[in-house]
Amino acid sequence: MSAHASPTARAVASKVLVRVVRDQSFAAAALEAELSRVVQLDDRDRALATELVYGVLRVFPWLVAQIDGRAKKPTHSLPWDAQGALWVAAQQLFFMRVPAFAAVDEAVTAVRRAAGASVAGFANALLRKLAASRPKPSEQEALRIHARLESCPAELRAALDSALGQDAAHAFLSELQPPPIGLRVTHEHERAEIMERIRTTRAHAELRLGTLSPLCINAHRLGGRLQSLPGFAEGHLSVQEEGSQVVALSLGVRSGERVLDACAGRGNKTGVLALAGGRVDACDRDSRKLERLDEDLARLHTSAATFAVDWLVGSGDVQGTYDAVLVDAPCSGTGTLRRRPELLLRKSRPLVERTAEQRALVRAVVPHLKTGGRLVYAVCSVLRAEAEDVIAGLEDLLEAAPFAGGGTTFVPLDATACRLLPNVHGSDGYFIASFRTRKS
User: Fold this and answer.
1) How far apart are the first and last CA of the chain?
2) Torsions phi, psi of 437, nearest 5?
3) Which residue, 288, 239, 307, 308, is CA-closest to 268?
4) Would you tell me which CATH number, out of the four given (1.10.3720.10, 3.30.565.10, 3.40.50.150, 3.30.750.24), belongs to the domain 242-437?
């Protein structure tokens, strides 16, 4: 956006998309940063900007192919701001019930501002071609499914087919519903009260009780800053996706137990473990994440000891043994694609390398587990290479055991492993497996 142009939802979306595609930024962070700058945008326009960003990213390769297929030359040589305007316009023409003139006119104006009158003429002709092939509203959903399937890289599609089966992989990739914002109450008995408090301050919010976690409220159309929700500042409410809550709850932490969160990140799961009464040590390679973790635990009126540890190098300052260990391992993130579609645009290392690292991570942690102690391995991935293939190499150290937290969450009482899927359970995708140390 130029300094002289009033911000619009489409302009915000275009700027965010350029950052994601060009700079490999995370969509959520880039969108939050841009929306914080344009305080004059109302909630409706903020929602539209969000819908445009994620809509484009979910079908980005297909969308660019449609644009370039109707252009006299590939558009990647255009200025980035001009490309962003074309992506946003094409998304509206193919998948949204927006008047064609509104999508085309604002995009052409943006292209003129970015690249001059000649390129604006090119963009006008191109977008009118796209508008002429616009699907009927009744055809948009089927086209969106097709576009999502076409936008999945061949290597990932093959891995999903192998892990889930072709039909289930198709259903996983076809999931079109924008994911809810997962909220976590600190105590189960507070959930109904906090839902009512949110309804009084966010009249347009759509709230539903979580079906997997007893602590979860799933929300659409919240609007406004999440940190200003009732109960957040006082530590009664946190932002955490429902499947992530299930992972932490599945460890079944009991009061007084010594617990290790081996890959804590910013500490959403650490909070669940500590609030259950565990004496928690939280580790991560990134000390900045641990600082954020400390701040959030203080808001929740609890705490954990933190250690900067790279388990593939050593245990660092971690001492002694634990009753329970959570290994929420770094992974491809394929289970979060509906929430983080930008991951489809990134080149990743071969899955076999990641499998070896994840297995090595678990092996490095096991010596810190008490005899008979329990361990939960989890990834926000649905791929076999990061799930069954990892735990298959641990039989000499660990034996499968029912989840200690089974029965109070989605996890069945007698299960030793489970997979969550967006199209089946409504949460992000996860693989979770439960173990105990082998007794010598």
Assistant:
1) 66
2) -65, 145
3) 239
4) 3.40.50.150
Rounded Cα distance, 17 and 57, in Å: 8
The third-level CATH classification (topology) of the domain covering 181-239 is: Alpha-Beta Plaits (3.30.70)
Say what the pTM is: 0.92
* CA-CA-CA-CA dihedral for 252, 257, 258, 260, to nearest 10: 10
Single-letter code of the amino acid located at 61: P
Instruction: Using the CB atoms, write b or e for 219-240: b if 16+ within 10 Å.
Output: beebbeeeeebbbbeebbbbeb
Q: Quote the pLDDT of residue 178.
A: 85
Domain limits, the chain: 9-140, 181-239, 242-437
For 317, counting Cβ atoms within 10 Å of its Cβ (0-12 exposed, 13-18 middle, 19+ buried), the class is: exposed
Rounded to 10 degrees, what is the CA torsion of 95, 98, 99, 101? -80
The whole-angstrom separation of Cα 278 and Cα 256 is 5
Q: Do domains 9-140 and 242-437 have the same CATH topology?
A: no
Q: What span, in angstroms and rounded, lies between the C-alpha atoms of 118 and 372?
A: 72
In angstroms, the CA 268 to CA 213 distance is: 14
Return the CATH number of 9-140, one of 3.40.50.300, 1.10.940.10, 2.40.10.270, 1.20.1250.20: 1.10.940.10
pLDDT digits (tens, 9 = 90+) for 258-303: 999 999 999 999 999 999 999 999 999 999 999 999 999 999 999 9
Q: Provide the 8-state DSSP code for 438.
A: P
Q: How confident is the model at residue 49 (pLDDT cuts 50, 70, 90)?
A: very high
The predicted-structure confidence for 373-421, as pLDDT tens digits, reads as follows 999 999 999 999 999 999 998 989 999 999 999 888 888 888 999 999 9
Instruction: Give the 3-state secondary structure of residue 356.
Output: helix
Closest residue by Cα to residue 55 from 101, 7, 23, 103: 103
Label residue 440 by pLDDT band (50, 70, 90): low
Q: How far apart are CA 107 and CA 124, in angstroms?
A: 8
